[in-house]
Amino acid sequence: xxxxxxxxxxxTWGRIPNGGRYPKHLRWPALLNGLLGSQHQVINFGxxxxxxxxxxxxLEGRNGLAYLQAALETFGPVDILILMLGTNDLxxxxxxxxxxxxxxxxxxxxxSRMPDSHDFPHPSLVVIAPPNILSPTGVMAESFxxxxxxxxxxxxxxxxxxxxxxxxxxxxxxVLQPSEADGVHLDTKANEQxxxxxxMLIKDTIKS
Length: 208
Prior knowledge:
- By secondary structure, the chain is of the alpha/beta class.
- The chain has helices at residues 10-13, 28-36, 64-75, 98-112, 139-143, 147-151, 154-164, 188-202, and strands spanning 3-8, 41-46, 80-84, 124-129, 168-171.
- Helix content is 37%, strand content 13%.
- Helix 4 links the parallel strand 3 (80-84) and strand 4 (124-129).
- It is globular and about 45 Å long.
- The protein starts with a strand and ends in a 6-residue tail after the last helix.
- The model has no long low-confidence stretch (mean pLDDT 96).
- This is Arylesterase.
């Protein structure tokens, strides 16, 4: 049995565009588990507002780097770690772009490969470049002011980081786009598309 840990933000957690949370069976990690089979365990450890490594002054506990080691120990040993973070890094109060988000992901990669007190083997890594942000609406509009153009560069910088660090790479923008309802979060179809894309990437590396 393989343990796959999905470490992400609200796109992994299952945020419904413009509010609420999808039932478990509609979130992409659960859909991925269904594709892989019940003999494997896919853990959804998404958290709305989570960043790669920035401390959000408005939301407590959202620094992804600060909590990754604890997550790996809590659910370990983890066979595959899926990282999809960076969308929240583009909120205007952080004043950073896709390059800095990718460098944050690189720090997460490094953290996942550090020795731990349990001698767990290091997980295989899947780095997902988040989908491009569309025109944010409602409460998203102010937070993500200027983020649309920045998000166009996720693919380039994340791929560079993934290749350099020998990670499996997926460009989410190549298989889906956010809901037009708020320009940031995923509709049910996009959750299905993401689960299928990840499944195709990892199915041959997982033992039945």
